[in-house]
From TrEMBL:
It comes from Paenibacillus sp. SYP-B3998. This is TRAP transporter substrate-binding protein. Residues 1-22 form the signal peptide. It holds the Pfam family DctP. It comes from the Bacteria.
Length: 354
């Protein structure tokens, strides 16, 4: 039922968006290069005035629900773009995976069928090898360290490297630290052995689970709740906000705060859509994306605390890890395996340590 409803929403959204884009000359502000129409022809896209509504209408796909911090960041971005373009550019945010799960959305974005999305760099790792670096364990000491890297020259270079995968990275968003949670009690690293653990699909995640003696089970985020409920998997891993908002905490009540990854989020646009924009619109979209980071970070900080309070109140068993050394030792072979592949990025991450 849920899937059927989702497809109806996707199709309806595609139809309405294509109509608007058709009215807008296919999502571009420039006059058709091959336009040979004379004075009697129907008005071109550029002739549509603000009074007739926005000239450009785009969709932004978001996995999380409407009140989740990344969605609030997306909405702020859309609002800033609308303001800066004086109503010419409209971006509709579709939360709660209405346009599909991350992997499917990224494929649509590559084709230009969906223009914008906010996704995890974990999911991007399946499309652009450079992004798998973020799935390596214990790269960053804390969120501040991660942001120093993301805002460094190498962090910006990485965002720009998405162009090779037919996407244009606009900004990074916060996503805190990821921890394991399980249906069975997990008090130490050895308790993960033999567990079937859901991961975001990419090669590093599979190596990481192997290093822990667990079985990696990649699947879309939206399937995890049922998979936990039916016992297809024993465990999963995520940050506090996702653990809470997805209700995974109701099925997997044992959380261990091992902080194995900090996997940032990315706000991006399809290269197909990007290439059609005027230089002026590119600049205002890029600026709006970077300006929306402030809102996303503020909302993140609030929601992260709130989620922790709520899962604690729900009676989840939480194990603190006072000494991460044994965890870091156990997963070191994974970093060693990839050290050469990500030499520049790993060096830049090291340099941004304090
Ligand atoms: C969340 C992330 C989502 C999605 C999810 C997952 O932290 O914000 O975009 O990637 O993790 O585990 O699939």
């Amino acid at each position: 039922m849920k899937t059927k409803k989702r497809y109806v929403t996707i199709i309806t959204a595609m139809i309405s968006s294509s109509f608007l884009l058709a009215a807008c000359g296919g999502g571009t502000t420039t006059t058709n290069a091959g336009d040979k129409s004379g004075p009697t022809a129907a008005p071109s896209a550029t002739a549509i005035t603000k009074a007739n509504g926005p000239k450009l209408s785009f969709r932004l796909a978001e996995t999380h629900p409407a009140d989740y911090p990344t969605t609030l960041g997306d909405k702020r971005f859309a609002e800033l773009v609308n303001q800066a373009s004086d109503g010419r550019i409209k971006i509709d945010v579709y939360p709660a995976s209405q346009l599909g799960e991350e992997k499917a959305v990224i494929e649509q974005v590559q084709l230009g069928a969906i223009e914008f999305t906010r996704v995890s760099t974990g999911a991007l790792g399946g499309f652009n090898k450079q992004y798998e670096v973020f799935s390596l364990p214990y790269l960053f000491d804390n969120d501040e360290h991660q942001w120093r890297f993301l805002e460094s020259e190498q962090g910006t270079k990485l965002l720009d490297s998405l162009e090779a995968s037919r996407m244009k990275g606009l900004a990074y968003y916060s996503s805190g630290a990821r921890h394991f949670y399980s249906k069975k009690p997990v008090k130490s690293i050895t308790d993960l052995k033999g567990l079937k653990i859901r991961v975001i699909q990419n090669k590093v995640n599979i190596d990481l689970m192997n290093a822990l003696g667990a079985n990696a089970t990649p699947m879309p985020y939206g399937d995890v709740f049922n998979a936990l409920q039916t016992g297809i998997i024993d465990a999963a891993e995520n940050n506090y906000p996702s653990y809470f908002s997805s209700n995974h905490f109701q099925q997997a009540k044992h959380l261990i705060l091992d902080q194995h990854q900090r996997v940032p989020e990315v706000l991006l646009i399809s290269k197909v859509a990007w290439d059609k924009l005027s230089a002026e619109d590119k600049a205002l979209i890029k600026k709006a994306a970077l300006d929306s980071v402030k809102t996303q970070k503020e909302e993140w900080a609030k929601f992260e605390k709130d989620s922790e309070t709520k899962v604690r109140a729900a009676g989840v068993t939480i194990t603190e890890v006072s000494d991460l050394k044994s965890w870091q030792e156990a997963v070191k072979p994974v970093i060693d395996k990839y050290r050469n592949d990500y030499k520049d990025t790993l060096e830049a991450i090291e340099k941004t340590k304090k």
